[in-house]
Design goal:
Elements lengths: L1 E2 L9 E9 L7 E9 L2 E6 L8 E4 L3 E5 L1 E6 L15 H12 L5 H17 L2 E8 L5 H14 L2 E6 L6 H5 L9 H9 L7 E7 L1 H4 L2 H13 L4 E5 L4 H5 L1 H7 L7 E5 L5 H10 L2 E4 L1 H6 L8 H6 L5 E2 L11 H18 L1 H4 L7 H8 L1 H6 L17 E5 L11 H8 L5 E6 L2 E5 L2 E2 L4 H16 L7
Parallel strand pairs: 1-5, 2-5, 2-6, 7-8, 8-9, 9-10, 10-11, 11-12, 12-13, 13-14
Antiparallel strand pairs: 2-3, 3-4, 6-15, 15-16, 16-17, 17-18
Helix pairs in contact: 2-3, 2-18, 9-10, 13-15, 15-17
Length: 454
């Protein structure tokens, strides 16, 4: 065995004497060793050895599955943090009406690339890319190519164009772009690949129930899962996205419902009964007025273990630590400010939040057979988290330290299918300087575009 070096490993990796937060119910948490071989988790135990493996000393380290972000509009990576303090109207004016139509395929590539690399740097190994920048087939292909080039495990959720946004977003009657068939048949054909295809549909709140039926029929004909934004501020009670689908007999366990902030209790029960999944974007829901309060506790009330997501880096940070803390903060603020509404809602702990950020996200993405837990036979998608930094020393409860004080700087190592995307605290991608320069060029051009009135 060889000790860890500055160079990223190309073969087996053996992590010794680490705190393993496996998210596997049969294993739980333990102090022990983990062996990565041929991209898979080969062994978990104690006193493991492997000839020729690169050894990571896990002392004062936690090892856990890589985080799973189930909903991010990754193409907006080059305009990160431009909208801190926006409300939904400002987001729509800048992103959907002004900048979206100006995006070139090159802008999409670099936006997705910096978004995916930032996610990897923060310990997110699986990114469900909710892509509504399908302005042309070239835009779509560049978005996919960036996910493939970044090294992340990607789910490309094919959406709609960001040209003529009112046609697509305001109860429009256009059905989903047929180009998704080309992608399924020619580009993302293998469901076992590192980057796979799903659909991002508008659903009854952004289109109509009739359009949603046609769109779901297309996705199901292609054999792919779908997501929809529902419970978005006033549109939730007005159009009842989940309820409308339920009444039309369209619900199923292949659906991921995003936000659910203003979906009513009857709808959440429908969601639970059909075995569908939910994604809570607590950070953006807490800071972008107009969406509604994060639905974490309400989902738990109906037995739904939600996944977590960033949404857009235009208005929030792109790491899962921020989202986990926002989930807890928003819930506890609700308990304090509107106690009658929160009185019968379940609470949740740091360990629950780690579950939501890992295995629950893998289940919501249809990938729990490959990722989301430290389980022998699964792909080695994992992170090594430093507990010896003075943000977490001395750690009395490791899960609480990760959720309560963790940040991307604590993430020392990131493996995706056994390949090091981050090693000794640094991303391993060879073209970081060039990507940074391309992102700055894209940002400057987009921000110079005159604002379009809604």
């Amino acid at each position: 065995m060889t000790q860890q070096t500055n160079s990223a490993p190309t073969g087996d990796v053996l992590i010794k004497n680490a705190h393993l937060l496996t998210q596997d119910p049969d294993l739980g948490e333990l102090v022990g060793d983990l062996l990565v071989r041929d991209g898979k988790i080969a062994e978990i135990g104690t006193d493991l050895s492997a000839e020729g493996a690169t050894v990571i000393d896990g002392t004062d380290r936690a090892v856990l599955p890589g985080f799973v972000d189930t909903h991010r509009h990754t193409w907006q990576g080059a305009v990160r943090q431009t909208g801190i303090g926006w409300d939904f109207g400002a987001y729509r004016q800048h992103i959907q009406l002004t900048w979206g139509p100006e995006y070139t395929p090159e802008d999409v590539y670099v936006g997705n690339m910096v978004g995916a690399l930032g996610a990897l740097d923060a310990g997110i190994t699986t990114l469900r890319d909710e892509s509504h920048i399908q302005n042309s087939p070239a835009h779509t292909d560049e978005a996919i190519r960036a996910l493939q080039d970044s090294g992340i495990r990607g789910v490309f959720a094919y959406g709609w164009p960001s040209i003529d946004s009112n046609k697509w977003m305001l109860r429009g009657e256009a059905t989903h772009p047929e180009d998704i068939r080309r992608v399924r048949e020619q580009v993302l054909t293998e469901d076992s690949a590192r980057v796979t295809l799903q659909a991002m549909l508008r659903g009854p709140e952004l289109s109509t129930t009739e359009v949603s039926a046609a769109d779901l029929g297309l996705a199901r004909d292609l054999g792919i899962r779908s997501s929809m934004h529902v419970g978005n501020g006033p549109w939730g009670p007005q159009f009842r996205g989940i309820g409308s689908l339920g009444e039309a007999g369209l619900l199923g366990d292949d659906l991921l419902f995003i936000h659910c902030c203003t979906s009513d209790d009857e709808e959440l029960k429908m969601l639970a009964d059909c075995g569908a999944h939910a994604s809570v974007s607590a950070a953006i829901e807490a800071v972008l007025p107009g969406l509604g309060a994060p639905a974490t506790g309400r989902l738990l009330k109906f037995g739904i273990r939600p996944s977590l997501s960033v949404d857009t880096e235009a208005t929030v940070a792109g790491d899962m630590f921020n989202v986990m803390r926002a989930s807890l903060t928003a819930h506890n603020l609700g308990v304090s400010l509107v106690p009658d509404e929160y009185a019968d809602l379940p609470t949740f702990t740091p360990r629950d939040l780690l579950e939501f950020a890992t295995i629950a996200g893998a289940k919501a993405s249809g990938l729990d057979d490959r990722t989301g837990s430290l389980t022998v036979g699964k792909d080695a998608d994992l992170i090594v988290f430093r507990l010896d930094e003075f943000t977490t020393v001395p750690s009395a409860d490791i899960a609480a330290s990760i959720v309560g004080a963790g940040h991307p700087g604590n993430v020392e190592t990131v493996l995706v299918a056994g390949k090091a995307a981050k090693w000794n605290g640094r991303l391993t991608h060879p073209d970081l300087d060039a990507i940074r320069a391309q992102a700055e060029k894209s940002r400057d051009r987009l921000l110079a575009t005159p604002l379009v009135e809604g």
